[in-house]
Design brief:
The complex is a heterodimer of chains A (about 160) and B (about 750). Chain A contains five helices and five strands, in the order E-E-H-E-E-E-H-H-H-H. Chain A has about 160 residues and is α+β, with helices and mostly antiparallel strands. Chain A folds into two domains: about 80 residues, Beta-grasp domain (Ubiquitin-like (UB roll), Roll), CATH 3.10.20; about 70 residues, [2Fe-2S]-binding domain (DNA polymerase, domain 1, Orthogonal Bundle). Chain B is built from 21 helices and 27 strands. Chain B has a seven-stranded mixed sheet with strand order 4-6-2-13-10-11-12. In chain B, strands 1-27-26-25-17 form a five-stranded mixed sheet, sandwiched between helices. In chain B, a hairpin with a 6-residue loop joins strand 25 and strand 26. Classes of the chains: A alpha+beta (about 160), B alpha+beta (about 750). The interface between A and B is large, with 62 and 60 residues.
Amino acid sequence: MSRTHVSCTINGDETEFLCSDDQSLLNALRDELLLTGVKEGCGTGDCGACSILLDGRLTCSCLIFAPEAEGSTILTVEGLAEGDHLHPLQQCFLEGAALQCGVCTPGFLIAAKALLDNNPDPTETEVRYGLAGNLCRCTGYDKIVRSVLEAASQMRESA
Amino acid sequence: MTNPEETTPSKPDYKYIGTRPIRPDGLDKVTGRARFAADLSLPGMLAGHVLRSPHAHARIVSIDTSAAEAIAGVKAVVTRSDFPDLDPANPEYNVTRNLMARDKVLYEGHVVAAVAASSRHIAKLATEAIAVEYEVLPHVLTVDEAMADGAPLLHSDLLTQNVEPEATEASNVARRTVLERGDVEAGFAEADVVIEREFTTKPVHQGYIEPHAVVADTSQDDTSVVWCSSQGHFRVQSQTATMLGWESSQIKVIPAEIGGGFGGKTTIYLEPLAVLLSRKANRPVKLVMSRDEVFRATGPTSGTRIRVKLGAKKDGTLTAGKAWLAYEDGAFPGIWGMLGCWCIFTPYDIPNFHIEGFDVVVNKPVNIAYRAPSAPMAAFATETVLDEIARAVGIDPLDLRLQNAAKEGDASPLGPKHGPIGLSETLDAIRKHPHYSAPLGPNQGRGVATGYWFNIGESSSASVNLNENGTAVVATGSPDIGGSRASMAIMAAEVLGIHPDRIRPVVGDTESIGFTDTTEGSRTTFATGWAVIEACRKIVTELKSRAATMWDVDGEEVEWVDGEARHTKGDNDPLPLAKITAAAKQTGGPLTASASLNAKGAGPAFCSQVCDVEVDPETGLVTILRFTTAQDAGRAIHPSYVEGQMQGGVVQGIGWALNEEYIFDGNGIMENAGFLDYRMPVASDLPMIDTIIVEVPNPVHPYGVRGVGEVGIVPPIPAIANAIHDATGVRLRDLPMSPVRVLEALTNGNGNSDGDA
């Protein structure tokens, strides 16, 4: 089967990969590029564990064909920290105990970043709706919501 | 950041217990670096795929794999003929037949074959090329169908255990359980109010976000290295070996990070298939389930039918209780009805009771533990009837529970007397919380309920190695499912007197740490933590001895305080741990210790909860407005993760109460095997979950720990049902309390055919 060549920018790096036309972007990220921080929880766009920012837009990478990434800019959890400096969301998730098993965490961090990129001062309700596409079965969401609100507050103060 | 949750202040004499350091594995999990089983790739690795039954019940007439094997890229195929038949007396007999169907498939999703190929795509094509001829058989899906006279049988040799006279004819009832005390009829005769109700619940799934995954690399000499996501890698090792007819020592299991389990990863599904495929192909093989497979083929918890009858005097004193419970086990016999019996009346001191329960096989996936397994359905029945009793005698429902709450010295229904338990304290905490007296608006209601889970101890091993620089590695055999590395580090820090940051907690594989039972029964912080404490105590003894050597004094003159050796009968300067480790070569060599134990005396867990709901009279939608849970933790080692367990349990209970259920069509095919149609709670469905940690120390544990992982899921269903009644006057006794069912109840004035109190 012939494979398609894709060029895009992932986490700041110009990246090329080969994929089959029916391969999901999620599978390409995990299997071809070994960006395994992007998780597969359902493969049907219902759990948000595979969330990425595709040209700045929150996207379930399991719902995109890999060739569609041609020319795009992608952010995964692996690109969230800047060198040694964790993103405030990552730091607040750690301090706020916002993870238990941790498998949904990459998707939540990306979804929360997408939310705060568009709305730096969300209410609790806005955070809850902003994260409603992501399933967490461990935490009951309480500490996740608090940590996102705390990160938003810190980011506003340092802005 | 501040934590608004309330916490009982920690004992002032603890330095690290009760603090909230950042978890040691946290950084890897917020950066995407943490390795879960599906994240692993090995050179030359093949992809596997499993062929599953499309029928709920059928005889396998024939399996022809020749077309699949002829496909280019297919490297191995396994079917029933590749696995030895165990003696039916082997305790793992049923597990091995769940992993690979033999003469019959017993549910939709039952494994029929597995393939390893050069790509996932080819592996899937190959399974589709396997020709299986089935003779479809009639099926049973519920306890009612399975227990009916003349019901189709799943197992022609299944005789009901614990009946008199002894069973001689096969049935679908695997086991009867009876617990009784006193004279139940006399107890009811004493009562002023007697209420009897019947309840039904549907199977629900644990819903962990990470599907089951394994990578196996098997050599030609029949040894294999297995990486997998599980709650207990020693059980994976022994069950996999048993299924293959191998020795456990032929298999090394390396625990990957686990992406949630809640009981659902306490057994195996894929590992023997991967090991054997790898053996046949002489290449590593990865098997990863789809979400669809997780729903159809891994264990949900039981669907149930439960009747509860309670009698009370006008003053609220309970006089008698009677319970009849029937629990689905799925396709093979389980213990779920028995566990329901163990839990159904345990929170209360009921002088006369009769509890009779049944474990029933049905043509559904095999049930496996789900957080306080079997207790939530039992509590739904008891706690709802108690609410009716409270209203009938005119006593506040919390007061009624306090009045009848089990206390230290009361005999539990299983027999043994309770030690110190915190049920009354949790009820008191809820009553004093501002939530309990806050005003309610129109269409709003408030409900309370309590929950019990017995907790377990079992076997654990730990080792501690001190590095030259004074840091420590603490290894255990317990997978970290929700922050246990943090609690291990804190307990080790407390004993050693060094900061938790100086301790690296690791989860050892089956060859690098002593046998450790599965992470289940809320046992890990209790039992594995205890092993860590014992290992650290041994090394403190050794540190004191080394200090004595360095000072050339008698060992009795050394005490260990705040991470340093102090000379009690002389003026030697204190020796901090790092100075002793730096000199270890001169004083006897490396400093290391280990401990293994079989922990007895896991203190039971109790919690009490209050919840406010609003019921939309036009749609039947129930919204959770406010939720507060108070739980006895014995001693909270890392309060944030104790709160996390409490909150997570509550929200799983909310999903179970309001939305979640397995739906089957008339042929026994699951109709909602995905997260879109099997709807688990999302953030926008919920309020904050307020937590109150109550601490009634477990006297057995060095730091008073009792397990906290499970009991939080027990009260939400009845608390919500009671709140719906408070809001609407309608009692719901069938789960889930979905909008359609609530609306029906509101329209009819009653959701149940048997009348309302």
